[in-house]
Specification:
20 helices, mainly alpha, Sodium/glucose cotransporter, 515 residues, single chain, globular, two-stranded antiparallel ribbon
């Protein structure tokens, strides 16, 4: 084992021990299930902002996006543009209204519980359906994060992928199991800060070491697709121009934000409106810088790593940031530990998403399905035990899904993001802004959105091809449109909400959360 690898390992060990220490600390503070899942609505503005965005971006930000830009050029940044627009609209339009509504709707603690209380669903239809959708798609989403962790450990330390996957999954499971929501949010705050520093510092150092005059020359010499002009053209995809369908599909990623339970729960947990306004500004600035610098990493990495060209051998293009850090910080052994800390930024991106997804899935299974449907009389201590057991079960299932070392991080994230965004996005938007939305419409929207994504991505309906492969249109765009349309049609064709439900809507619109 080389000296630099030893320092990298020391940095990883210190970081992982810090995460575990946070889990132990908050384990003592979790008195009941509400503390475990929502932290008593006590999040500060900074923690809420960085926790929401860090849990959102995952390993995709530091591996998937830079890797696709590295391989094909800046045209891959349309996803980043869509995500930025979605982030801004989510914080400005959704965050404060959702927080008020969850308080007005019987102080809802979980996402499915909000839907149940918002639509006065006494038969618990929404609770069951939304919980099932969350468990299914979050399993895939969590698997993507664990797979990214496995690839990171395997790449940095040269260990077997499955061994690496096991180590990463075990640490994430441990502090989520112990500390619950506040442990997850606190670790996400640290992870979000670390991600931002790494995104800013590493490409700037690499650019300076390479020499600004060598950027264009190295890009040309590395034979980027479409030549340098095409590679740096936002409207080029490799060696051809983007089609309108491709641009719409990538921008369509932004639609997913308003349906992501692990992001929306951060809005629910902020301590007050003043802190929420602070969170909004911090989150928007963070995501603008992070997405922009992730694109820069792909471009600078292509030039800086040349004559090595990733993707032509065993090393994937998704490892561009890892390879940049290794090259920058192994020149001087005194800087190797710092390089290890920046590598922890990638681990941070992975862990901040996986822990949130584990917690949301556990809350749906234990509080919503177990306590809400199977055993309504279960006390909080019992629910807390079930919650922790569910965290273990979900982690094991996600681990099994992620065992394939050839699994694409981008593909897994894409499928899960589409399913959750199409199922919940339109329902959340209309539940907050259209008084006429009723229970039947909400059920129709969730079911149709989720099923559309499954049919579009997994069922070969066109000559052995899926509709997604045949049309090139992202399933989230189609699923969101179908869900939105069906909510409106079904709500208008069925009985309007009762006066009490309409009064709650009006109270929230006026800012009256007490009723």
């Amino acid at each position: 084992m080389g000296t630099s690898t030893v320092w990298f390992l020391a940095a990883f060990a210190a970081y992982l021990l810090l995460m575990l220490g946070i889990g132990v600390y908050y384990m003592k503070k979790n008195r009941d299930a509400d503390d475990y899942f929502l932290g008593g609505r006590g999040l500060s503005g900074w923690v809420a902002a960085l926790s929401a965005q860090a849990s959102d971006m995952s390993g995709w930000l530091l591996m998937g996006l830079p890797g696709s830009v590295y391989a094909l050029g800046t045209g891959q940044a349309w996803i980043a543009v869509g995500l930025f627009i979605g982030t801004v609209l989510n914080w400005i339009c959704i965050s404060s209204r959702l927080r008020r509504y969850t308080i007005r709707a019987n102080n809802s603690v979980t996402f499915p519980e909000y839907l149940e209380n918002r639509f006065h669903d006494t038969k618990k239809i929404l609770l069951l359906i939304s919980s099932i959708v969350i468990v299914i798609f979050f399993l895939v989403y969590t698997a993507s994060a664990l797979a990214a962790g496995g690839k990171l450990f395997a790449s940095v330390f040269g260990m077997d992928y499955r061994v690496a996957l096991t180590i990463g999954a075990a640490v994430i499971l441990a502090y989520t199991f112990m500390g619950g929501f506040m442990a997850v949010c606190t670790t996400d705050f640290i992870q979000g800060s670390l991600m931002l520093v790494g995104l800013l510092v590493v490409p700037i150092i690499a650019y300076c070491l390479m020499g600004p005059e060598n950027l264009m020359k190295n890009l040309a010499d590395s034979q980027v697709p479409g030549g340098v002009n095409g590679y740096l053209n936002l409207f080029s995809n490799g060696e051809r121009n983007y089609s309108a369908v491709e641009i719409i599909s990538q921008l369509g990623w932004g639609l997913g934000y308003c349906g992501m339970p692990h992001i929306l729960t951060r809005f629910m947990a902020v301590k007050n409106e003043k802190e929420l306004k602070k969170s909004r500004v911090i989150a928007i600035i963070w995501v603008a810088i992070s997405l922009g610098m992730a694109v820069v990493i792909g471009i600078v990495g292509r030039a800086y790593l040349f004559p090595v060209i990733l993707g032509e051998g065993a090393v994937s293009t998704e490892n561009v940031f890892i390879e940049m850090i290794a090259k920058v910080f192994t020149k001087d052994m005194n800087m190797a530990f710092v390089g290890g800390i920046f590598l922890c930024g990638i681990l941070a991106a992975i862990m901040s998403t996986a822990d949130s997804q584990l917690l949301i899935t556990a809350s749906s299974a234990s509080k919503d399905i177990y306590q809400g449907i199977m055993n309504p009389k279960a006390d909080d201590k019992k629910v807390l035990k079930i919650s922790r057991a569910t965290v273990i079960v979900v982690a094991v299932l996600a681990y099994i899904i992620a065992l394939d070392p050839n699994s694409s991080i981008m593909g897994l994230v894409s499928n899960a993001w589409a399913g959750l965004g199409a199922a919940f996005g339109p329902t959340i938007v209309l539940s907050l802004f259209w008084k006429r939305t009723n229970l039947a419409g909400a059920v129709a929207g969730i079911v149709s959105g989720g099923l559309t994504v499954i049919l579009w991505d997994y069922i070969p309906l066109m000559g052995g091809q899926t509709l997604g492969a045949a049309t090139g249109l992202y399933s989230l765009v189609v699923g969101f449109a179908v869900s939105l349309l069906l909510i409106i049609i079904v709500s208008l064709c069925t009985k309007e909400p009762d006066r009490e439900m309409q009064q709650e809507f009006e109270d929230v619109a006026r800012g009256n959360v007490e009723g």
